[in-house]
Design brief:
alpha+beta; 8 helices; 8 strands
């Protein structure tokens, strides 16, 4: 029996590590993270205001940056997240976000999907009849995939390189796997790009699965760097699914 995911998993892989130059020290105030300090340093460098004339904490400084729409300094801080328990349908939408993003995704051509996991569509969770019908189709597709790989390996037995033969078999057989097939993807983006993606994908108009992922990613990044994402609010939408909204647009 395949494994079924009903929630995504988000893991932080990397975060900024700020190294302050000794000849341009900033008068830091308040609690902050490396990424937040990096953005404040970049902003203050523009005006050589390292002495902090307004006596603002880092997070107050960045709140004003967002309010004023000066989002370019947020582009210096990059965060890498690992997404698991997401469908290939979701990643087809996710990778449309290009500016400021980098992606590395599991390859169905190289990886054996005989024991692949699948993501239950959020819309059917809780409905036993719909879930049973969906799972029956999933199990049938996976069985077909396994059978096709075996037959294709036999068909191309004249290919001496066994690794290449496996690629040939898997790349042909993967066509029967559904969009619900679980995948894993490393996503790196700067704070400004993350804000844009999360604003769009956590909104009420977003598809349920990517909206669910956006909420989990938002909460993860709010813990990582509160100042960059403090103006996001998570609420229960009219469709009874959590959604997110933002105070400062197009930062």
């Amino acid at each position: 029996m395949p494994q079924f995911y009903t929630e995504p998993k988000v893991t932080v892989l990397s975060r900024p590590d700020f190294a302050e130059p000794g000849h341009l020290p900033v008068q830091w105030m308040g609690e902050s993270t490396g990424g937040e300090k990096l953005a404040e340093f970049a902003g203050r460098l523009c005006y050589m205001s390292q002495k902090n004339p307004a006596s603002r904490t880092t997070r107050d400084y960045l709140e004003n940056i967002k309010k004023q729409g000066h989002g370019s300094v947020l582009e210096h801080a990059n965060y890498s997240l690992l997404f698991e328990g997401v469908s290939r349908s979701l990643t087809h939408e996710l990778v449309r976000h290009r500016a400021g993003f980098a992606y590395s995704q599991l390859s169905q051509r190289y990886v054996d999907e005989s024991d692949a996991a699948f993501v239950v569509p959020p819309a059917i969770i809780g409905d036993d009849a719909l879930t049973a019908a969906w799972k029956a189709q999933i199990e049938s597709a996976q069985a077909t995939y396994i059978a096709l790989v075996e037959k294709l390996m036999e068909r191309y037995k004249w290919v001496d390189d066994k690794v290449h033969r496996r690629k040939m078999a898997r790349e042909a057989a993967r066509g029967v796997l559904p969009n619900s097939t679980e995948t894993k993807i490393v996503v790196t983006a700067n704070a400004r790009a993350w804000r844009t993606m999360l604003e769009l994908r956590s909104s009420e108009g977003a598809e349920f699965e990517i909206r669910r992922l956006a909420i989990v990613a938002l909460r993860t990044l709010q813990k990582e760097a509160p100042a960059f994402f403090s103006d996001f609010e998570v609420y229960m939408a009219a469709d009874r699914v959590e959604a997110g909204r933002i105070s400062y647009h197009k930062v």
